[in-house]
Specification:
By secondary structure, this protein is an alpha/beta fold. The protein has two domains: about 140 residues, Aspartate/ornithine carbamoyltransferase (Rossmann fold, 3-Layer(aba) Sandwich); about 150 residues, 3-Layer(aba) Sandwich (Rossmann fold). It contains ten helices and nine strands. It has a five-stranded parallel beta sheet, with helices on one face. It has a four-stranded parallel beta sheet with strand order 2-1-3-4, with helices on both faces. The longest helix is centred in the C-terminal third of the chain and has 19 residues. The two termini are about 20 Å apart. Bound molecules: phosphoric acid mono(formamide)ester. The site of phosphoric acid mono(formamide)ester has 9 residues, from α2.
Length: about 325
């Protein structure tokens, strides 16, 4: 029998930040905030998603996203199953659609998917009855990363509206940058993407940001958001920068490049010594560990959110009691 606190209803997905309104973002962050207090208790498990099943389907490597989705589901008492493509029948040539159909046969409520191909979460949403959450598709979107980043920023700075966030580095290959630019616009913050011309996608301003090749334009930002150089998405022979040493000299975030009062964020994993100096990564200005912690409560909130229907949603305090 289904849990009345999580009513059945139309399928809701989180595939891109474009799926969200500013009200959705505010509600998810508020839910995450309510859930955060539950993590201070001795018994951290909540009954909210008891009887529900969450499948994590990961076709790309992950530490933070997979671990936090799995723990988030467990903390909400859902049954979880995680399948990494490596070591599964994907190695034998099974297609995404067939793998999704195989997982769907176990009747999951939510499928969380990470995949190198843009649009893979939409394929799963079309071919199963589950609610689908995008945990990163190629260089397209990583909506839960954007939400957790907003949560960590608000915790550290006390507000989101009016903030200026400088997003520095390999914007071209970054789903994190694309999602974050859109999410910041939804909460009334502004963003500037900064990097070498070869790593700035043409027309990125259409997502709602400014673009610059000059790191000096990060000087007045409240947040320096450092992106990982995504060497795995660069084809052999492609040279986006003359050398990593030169990239680092021009765009690497060193202590001298962090203005007093600025906070520094990085989605991880970090290439220490390339895009971020270890002295910055380990400084008090860095929110990297706060981002990881935010990932757990925000992903708990997202799982809760996709499984509830606005019209009959219980207040979060009731839902987690
Ligand atoms: N930020 C992020 O997506 O990290 P993982 O690749 O470790 O999940």
């Amino acid at each position: 029998m289904s849990d009345p606190r999580v009513p059945a209803g139309p399928r809701r997905h989180l595939l891109t930040v474009s799926d969200l309104t500013s009200d959705d973002v505010a509600r998810i962050l508020e839910t995450a905030d309510g859930l955060a207090s539950s993590l201070d208790r001795e018994v951290k498990k909540l009954p909210t998603l008891r009887g529900r099943t969450v499948v994590n389907l990961f076709y790309e490597s992950s530490t933070r996203t997979l671990a936090s989705f799995e723990l988030a589901a467990k903390r909400l008492s859902a049954d979880t199953m995680s399948l990494r493509s490596s070591g599964s029948s994907v190695d034998k040539g099974e297609s995404l659609k067939d793998t999704a159909a195989t997982m769907a046969a176990y009747d999951p409520d939510v499928i969380v998917i990470r995949h190198p191909a843009i649009g893979a979460p939409q394929v799963v949403a079309r071919s199963t009855q589950a609610h689908v959450v995008n945990a990163g598709d190629g260089k397209h979107q990583h909506p839960t990363q954007a939400l957790l980043d907003l949560y960590a920023m608000e915790e550290a700075l006390g507000r989101l509206e009016g903030l200026h966030v400088a997003i520095v580095g390999d914007v071209l290959h970054s789903r994190v940058a694309r999602s974050l630019v859109q999410a910041l616009a939804l909460v009334g913050a502004r963003s500037t993407v900064i990097g070498p011309p070869t790593l700035l996608p043409r027309g990125i301003e259409a997502l709602g940001c400014a673009a610059s090749t000059d790191l000096a334009d990060a000087r007045d930002a409240d947040v320096l958001y450092v992106l990982r150089m995504q060497r795995e998405r660069m084809q052999a022979g492609e040279a986006f920068v003359p050398s990593l040493r030169e990239y680092s000299a021009l765009y690497g975030i060193t202590p001298e490049r962090v203005r007093p009062g600025q906070v520094v964020m990085h989605p991880g994993p970090m290439n220490r010594g390339i895009e971020i100096d270890p002295r910055v990564a380990d400084s008090d200005a860095a929110l990297v560990a706060d981002q990881v912690r935010a990932g757990l409560v925000v992903r708990m909130a997202v799982l809760y959110d996709v499984l509830t229907v606005a019209a009959v949603r219980a207040p979060v305090t009731e839902a987690v009691a």
